[in-house]
Amino acid sequence: MRQLNFAQRRKLRGIPRRLRSLDRWADRFATLALPSPEDCGDRGFWNWKLPVISSLANHPSRRLQAHCLQALIQAATNLATQAQSADADCHVACLIEWPALFYSEVTLFYSRDYYRSFYGDRHALAPRSLAQDYGLQLPSGWVERGFDVTQPDQCGPIEWWVIGQPLQP
Fold this sequence. Notes:
35% of the residues lie in helices and 18% in strands. The chain is an alpha+beta fold. It holds the Pfam family DUF3916.
């Protein structure tokens, strides 16, 4: 269940249970019925947000952050496998907002052009790699691209990362 936690001073309880629940969420994508392009309407995509309380996703512990990131990647991998077996014309990616992981999602793109707008033509934060920094296991052939989207009035840096299937020219 997604939930904003406004009481940041309270200790986060039940971390192992919450992480198990997150892993079960990622595993469910292996048997998920894919939404059709008609279900997406004119948007051209369908997305699933990270289903955790914000204080877990945005926790300062690198171990918890890595677990949340790996669960997103596992969900996307399972969804891509499901789409491939259904012979669907789509792309799957994790859209990660860094450092606020709570806003991250797994996205199924039916529109190639819309996916290209997230995917970009370059990796602006190279040679940095979220996968290397956090020891993440990416599926073979998947790409990782990062972009700095910090605005002048924001109090800290904001990065968008796309980890997903490559676009073929």
